[in-house]
Amino acid sequence: MTIVVARYLQRDYAGALQVFSRIRENFIDAFAMQAACLAQLGRIREAQDAAEKALSQNRDYIRHGDWIRGWNFRNHEDFEHLLDGFLKSGLLMERPVQLESPHSIGGDSRPPLGLVTN
Question: What does pTM read for this prediction?
């Protein structure tokens, strides 16, 4: 998955999808990355199908913000770029924002990202 994320962040979406064809991962993060890559390539129907595969594994976990907290980037622009793909694919319905209470993820002292809930 690390290679897929790296290629995505380099905007090499086709290269990231090519890696998927060799690794055959079928868990939430893999389907999410596949959905983001396809969405960035403008292949929206396929992106929506991949997003639905991720959502079918645990829709509430993804949509309520718990899942997104696990995606930790030191560069906020990289995280925003990834969110863009998740949003375009339909995986996420709204853009996450910084949570108010500080919390450390993976040794990072910045607050985690979570979904806005009203």
Answer: 0.78
Burial of 100 (0-12, 13-18, 19+ CB in 10 A): exposed
Backbone angles phi, psi at 60, to 5 degrees: -65, -40
**Alpha-helical segments (H) within 24-112:** 28-40, 44-63, 76-89
pLDDT by 10s per residue, the chain, length 118 = 789 999 999 999 999 999 988 877 778 889 999 999 999 999 999 999 999 999 999 988 888 767 787 777 888 899 889 999 999 999 998 876 653 333 333 444 444 444 333 3
